[in-house]
Structure formats: structure tokens, C-alpha cells
Amino acid sequence: DVEFKKVADDVKKVKTQPTNEELLTLYGLYKQVLVGDVNTERPTVDPTGKAKWDAWQSRKGMSKDDAMATYITEANGIISKYGM
Fold first, then answer.
1. Which residues are CB-neighbours of 77 under 8 A, at least 6 positions away?
2. Which ranges carry the ACB domain (predicted)?
């Protein structure tokens, strides 16, 4: 949990904005860690909300530990790619 919180904070400090795809990957994993499986209706009007919901929904059934480990790996890759 400590490593997850640290990397979640650090990834916000990268020098260059990650791609939308990278951000959506992190978002889906982050929500899966904090909330678990998606528990809301898919937005109907907001395209950004739809993309975020879909990213989270794509992690359905993933355990908190698996989501956390994958988030840490993905976030560290983004930090390495863009620098802090």
C-alpha cells in the first residue's frame, strides 16, 4: 500500500503529460484498487466519462492486489518514459 501511494503520487509529477491511453490505463487500475469492480452506470453523454468508465470496467474481476501490482508496474514505466 505504501509503494502504491508513493507511485500514485509520483506519476502525477512527470515532466510530460502521458498519452490518453496511458492515463486511462492508470485510471482503470486505480479505481479497481480503491473501489473494486465498477459500481456505477456508464455515462451516456460525457465522452471522457465513458472512456474512464470503460477503462475501469475493463478491470472487472481483477483482485485489488493484482490491480495494485499492475498499477505500480505501469506507473513506474510512465515515470521512466517521461521523467520527473
1. none
2. 1-84
- Contact by Cβ (8 Å): 14, 79: yes
- Read off the DSSP letter of residue 40: S
Half-sphere exposure of 71 (CA within 13 A, CB side): 31
Nearest to 71, CA basis, from 19, 14, 5: 5
pLDDT single digits (tens) 10-68: 999 999 999 999 999 999 999 999 999 999 999 999 999 999 999 999 999 999 999 99
Can you give the pLDDT at residue 56?
98
Handedness of CA 45, 47, 48, 51 (dihedral sign): positive
The type of residue at 16 is T
Evaluate whether 8 touches 71 at the Cβ level (below 8 Å). yes
